[in-house]
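Exercise 7.
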Amino acid sequence: MFTGLVEEVGEVADLRRAEGSAVLEISCQVVLDGSEVGDSIAVNGCCLTITDLRPEGSFTCDMMGETLDRTALGDLTPGDPVNLERAMRAGGRLGGHLVQGHVDGVTTVRSIDPHEEWTTVTYALPPRLSRYVVEKGSITIDGVSLTVAAVGDDWFSVGLIPHTLEVTTHGIRGVGDRVDLEVDVIAKYVERMLSAGVTSPYSPGGDS
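Solution. The predicted structure, written as tokens, is:
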């Protein structure tokens, strides 16, 4: 589990493709502290497993076909910056919101509108994810926990403060760039229970 608070912006050192898979190597410093092979790291919001730690200051992880198909990680090239976050420790502060690191879809930046003290960024909203996105709700974009400022039929927008632009990859995004989205998992669980007609055991007439 993650929180959507980026700890460090790393750099892609290498991306080696094979048939239906790839090995990603990322140079970094902060997230290597205390990390071991087998640990989880969120890379642009996608939960990946460390497969090797390099003494020169990098880690590698394997990406299968599902990851390449469902995220924008396959677009990366050496030198690209990526948002990194280690899994939250038990008892740690939940500064953002509950983030699984399971990317729900990829979308694109529609517009970027700078203001004096913040920047409004608008993204295309994939139809299959639109029911999970609500005004003032939480959403994860490239691994960053953000609040939805406004939402329409096929778009939504967020407000980014200068600090977020400075310490994440959002500060270098341009119109048309592809980003990873993860919607609030709580909304998906609620939808699943309602569609199944589940009766709460805590309501009158519920299962005992």
